[in-house]
Amino acid sequence: METRGVPLREADENIKKLAQMNADASLLLSVPGMGNYSALLIASEIGDISRFPSAKKLCSYAGLVPCVYSSVGEGPGTAISPSKDQNGCDGY
User: Are residues 5 and 47 in the same domain?
Assistant: First the structure.
């Protein structure tokens, strides 16, 4: 199979080399099930991880902070919120 003239196998090898050259992506590759593409994607999305003072702040940035809210007459709801939203969820 080819993608825009570049064989898929060659593209995979290039991604693998890039992941191995990137220190953050290399560390992410130690997570079971993490692939080269995903490691590069996550590393590029996070950027300089030192800008997050805690793991909670990183999780909030990534949108992985759970939030439970409810209204009178309604059952409880849940959301995942990267920041304080209209329901008052902090998101750390």
Answer: yes
